[in-house]
Amino acid sequence: MVLALAKEIAMRKNELLGASRTNNEIVETIYFGGGTPSVLSNDEINFLISEVYKNYKVVENPEITLEANPDDLSAERILELSKSPINRLSIGIQSFYEADLKMMNRAHNSAEAKKCLEEATKYFDNISLDLIYGIPGLSDEMWKQNIQTALDFGIPHISSYALTVEPKTALSKLIQTGKIAEPQDEAASNHFMILVDMLQKNSFIHYELSNFGKENYFSKNNSAYWLGKKYIGIGPSAHSYDGEKRGWNIANNSLYLKAIQNDELPIETEVLTISDRYNEYIMTGLRTIWGVSLERIENEFGLEYLNYLMKQSQKFLNDDLLSIENNILKPTPKGKFLTDGIASDLFYLNLED
Fold first, then answer.
1. Torsion angle, CA of 154/156/162/165, rounded to 10 degrees?
2. Buried/exposed code over 48-58 (b: 16+ C-beta within 10 A; e: otherwise)
3. What is the 8-class DSSP label of residue 218?
4. How many CB atoms lie within 10 A of CB 177?
5. Spatial contact of 105 and 170, defined as CB atoms under 8 Å apart
6. Apex CA 225: angle with CA 294 and CA 159, to 5°?
7. pLDDT truncated to tens, each residue of the chain (353 aa)?
């Protein structure tokens, strides 16, 4: 698999070639995402990063992130990683409560979560952790303690999401059989407001709907996605975007390996229509502190789209869920938790492209 990933990295370098056939695009971030990239050895990590450098231009100090779960991050492994080019860890803590972790079928326990952060903060300055809110049985006070525990470790970036129940999972079965209660929107909304309040009081910037970072600790990788920058996804199931079309690699490992061995890219692509690109900009823009530029809407998509956006936005402006300042449309504090629903009402669905 590692050799196949390296080969795909080389096979796709021409995607960043400009009109002059020179490599004029610069890689700003390298992200080792899930499955479980923490199973890679330092030698394998170093090898894959060197392949990126061999085939692409890379900025002087790229953000290089590794996703991992607490059960993968022993003291020895953290020490090893600190000697690799990895300079940012994204750790799937989810909760510091034993009952929550069991209910979500997590492999780690509360003690491992805390021990992992204790060790990681000795060697890494740039750490992000995930927390889940809206869990049945998680009181407001317990949720505050979850956040406070993260703050006590001095973590500079927190990603936080409402619990979602996927079909055919252990959690879904527990809810169907009445063993645990279904997540409640009101509880999730309360938890979200508590999260925003506590983190802002602790100098975090709420720069994206689910993401909070101290100054200079925003995720450069995720920000690139929300700002519509290009990215290349390497490996099974990985997604890519070049500004005009999206691509996704085949999910099956065996079929992926076979294709790469045959010098074929196992990727499907979809060319985005102007409406697709408008809708994506609305969705990602509203989720961030950068908002939606009305000037960009007019310049990139045309007056018809701008007029439609203003018409659709009016009810949300009247209800103090959206605001316009300096020609930027963005949610108000009251509208933030409803951002995804608001965005869907602003989507352009009926235009011919």
1. -80
2. bbebbeebbeb
3. S
4. 8
5. yes
6. 105
7. 999 999 999 999 988 765 444 556 899 999 999 778 989 999 999 999 999 999 999 999 999 999 999 999 999 999 999 999 999 999 999 999 998 898 888 889 999 999 999 999 999 999 999 999 998 889 999 999 999 999 999 999 999 999 876 666 655 565 566 666 565 778 899 999 999 999 999 999 999 999 999 999 999 998 988 888 999 999 999 999 998 899 999 999 999 999 999 999 999 999 999 999 999 999 999 999 999 999 999 999 999 999 999 999 999 999 999 999 999 999 999 999 899 999 999 999 864 44
Q: How far apart are CA 19 and CA 85, in angstroms?
A: 32
Considering only the C-alpha atoms of the chain, give the largest distance between any 2 of them, rounded to a whole number of Å.
63
Give the predicted TM-score (pTM) of the model: 0.90
Alpha-carbon distance of 133 to 143, in angstroms, equals 7
Q: Which long-range contacts (CB under 8 A, 24 or more apart) does 225-231 make?
A: 225/284, 226/284, 226/285, 226/287, 226/288, 226/290, 227/284, 227/288, 227/290, 228/280, 228/281, 228/284, 230/16, 230/25
| Exposure string for 270-289, b = 16+ CB within 10 A, e = fewer | eebeebbbbbbbbbbbbbbe
Overall residue count recorded for the chain in this entry = 353
- Say which DSSP state 181 is in: P
Q: Which residues contact 4 (CB under 8 A, 6 or more apart)?
A: 256, 257, 260, 261
The structure tokens listed for 351 are: 């235009």
Q: 137: closest CA among 112, 102, 166, 108?
A: 102
Q: Are strands 205-208 and 211-213 parallel, antiparallel or unpaired?
A: antiparallel
Residue 300 amino acid letter: E
